[in-house]
Each structure stands twice: as C-alpha cells, then as structure tokens.
Fold this protein.
Amino acid sequence: MRLAGTYHPIPYLLKMISQYLPNVIETNALWLDYDKKLYYSADKTPIQGDLKIKTQELRNTSVVSEWTNDSKLFTYVNRSRNQLSLSDEDELNVLRLYFPSPIDGMKDMISITFSPNSFLKSLNIQFKGISSQEKDILSGMLVSILNVEHKRVTEEKKTLRQIEKLNQIKEKRISQLTDDLNSTELLYSSAIENIVQEFVNELNEELSKEFILTKEVIFKLAKEKLSLETIKETVQNAIYLAFNLNLSSDVVEVTEDHIQLIDKEVKERSVTIKVSKNDKVLDLLNRYEQAAEQLVANGITVNGKNLAAQLSPPVTPPAITDAIKKNESKISYFLQQYPERWENIRSAIRPINNLDQNHGQSRAI
C-alpha cells in the first residue's frame, strides 16, 4: 500500500474525490509539484510556454472555492452571483476548489464537474434543483473535508522526509564507522604482521625453509585480538603443521586452514600472567612508567631527558629513543592491548605518544 505522504496532495485528493463523490462527470487539477514544475491532471508532461503563464495567473488568487459552468481549467470567468439569473444558476455545475501549495504558497486547483441529473441523497433532490445557498453548503463541506486530507498528506510528507533524512544520516554514519573500522583493522593487522614476522624468521632459520603467511592468516590473528604469547604459539603450530605437510618444498605457504585457535577463555587466563612477567618490552614500558611516576611525585616535568636520568641505572635520552624504535611493533601492540596503562609516558614521551596516536581513532570508536 502506498502511503499518502508519498503523493503530492492534489493528485491524492483527486483519487479521494471519487470515493466521496462517485457520480461526478469529471475531475481536473492544476498544481506545482515538488520538482518545481507545473502539471495538469490530463497530461503527464509539465506545462510549458504561454500555458504556464496562464496557469500561474490562475494560481495567484485568494479564492477558496467558486462555482462556474465551464469545466475547462484555463478559462476564468469572473462573475458575481448577483449578476446570475435562475437559469444561469442551474448551469453552475462545476466546482473549483483552491488549496495552498506546499511549495510556493500560491494556489493549486481542483475542478469537479457534477452531472445536472446527479441525485444528491443528502439533500433528497437532483443537483440541478439545488439553490445557490445549498451549493455553498455543498462546497463548504467539500472544502472542509478535502482541506483536512490536504493537510494530512502535507504533514505526512514532512514526516517521511524527516525519516528519510534520519536514515540517510544513519547510513552515512554506518558507512563512516565501517571505513574507520576497516582503517583500524589495517593498522592493527600491520602491527600484528610485524610481530608475527619475527616468529616466522626464527622458524625459517630453524627449519631451513621459507614460510609465507597469507593476508587471511594475519587478519584472522588480528581479528581475534590475541595476546602475544598466544599469537606466537598459534603461528608456531601453524608453521609446524605446514612444514609436516610440505617436506619437499623450499617455500611453504601458511594459510588460514593451518591456524588452530585454543579456547579463548583458557588462553586469556593463562597467557596474561606469562606476558606480564616475562616479556622484555612490557617490562621496559613498566620501568619507564615507574620512573615517570617518581618524576611526577617530585614535581619534575616528565620528558625524555628527565626520564633517562630517573631510571635505575640511568641512561641517555638517545638510548630511550633507540629502545622504543627497536621495539615499536610490540610497543604499539601493547599500547592498544592495554589502553588504561602507562598514562604518563603515553602523553609525555614523544616516540611513545606517536605510536599511541596511530591507534587513537580505534580507541575513540
């Protein structure tokens, strides 16, 4: 079923008139559509040329309704009721109704032609026998009913447009979030790829083969958000499996089919302790943060120079920069894996801050 708000009010009212007045001879209309073009109900193409000028003249009126004996919309007869004879009054069987345009504020028009022999049950007489006063009552009833419908269609149109706008904003937001997610996944996958390559290089040397991990493997590892220990174990298991299945090949491709993940809950409980105690890079970040906290407690600015002097034993500022550069893949991984840790060095030590900012968007999402 088509909603009323998907119509322009005038074509919609033309459809409704046939339900209210089944015995009319003819209905016609002129209106300005939402495409800013003028239309005539008897023609699907927009009104052009001199006829367009005439149409605008008809629309430029303050009249709400009028009776005439001419069903042609482009003929305008301006006659006062006082000038009409009784026979003339009987001939007024065309009712023109004017409605405010929702586009430009001028008037759209509907013309209803009644048959003189139509029998009006509500008045219990034939149409040609009703008086001018009764015609005014009839036109008043139609104006009241159709204006209510006209307003309803217009308001419903506004509501549908608001819903459409909200849907467009929602779709745009979803698209933006999807792009952001894809970007984050690429950044995270890149960090995982650098870390994994260290494990692969070790096994390349140990097994005297070249193992190549597909992009699908890297994406799967990144998507699971595994700890470093679990990533290393998973990659080693996959390489050994691929090695056993390809003993005669010098170059072995490790695919997603070789990846076997252990139970996630057991994995997270077991490896967090191992990483926190044994990983050298994690220990490095913890030592830097402890030194930074001591500087803050003593009211000293946290920067590379002061941090280097605060460490035990003290080091030079270039030594800190060099250590961060050599371990930037793991540091980047840990910064994203533990966003609540190392608050002081995240913001105050520039090389660490730069790595942290690379994943800022992902934390915002």
The chain is about 60% helix and 10% strand. Residues 279-365 form one domain. Residues 132-207 form the longest helix (76 residues). The first strand starts at residue 24 and ends at 32.
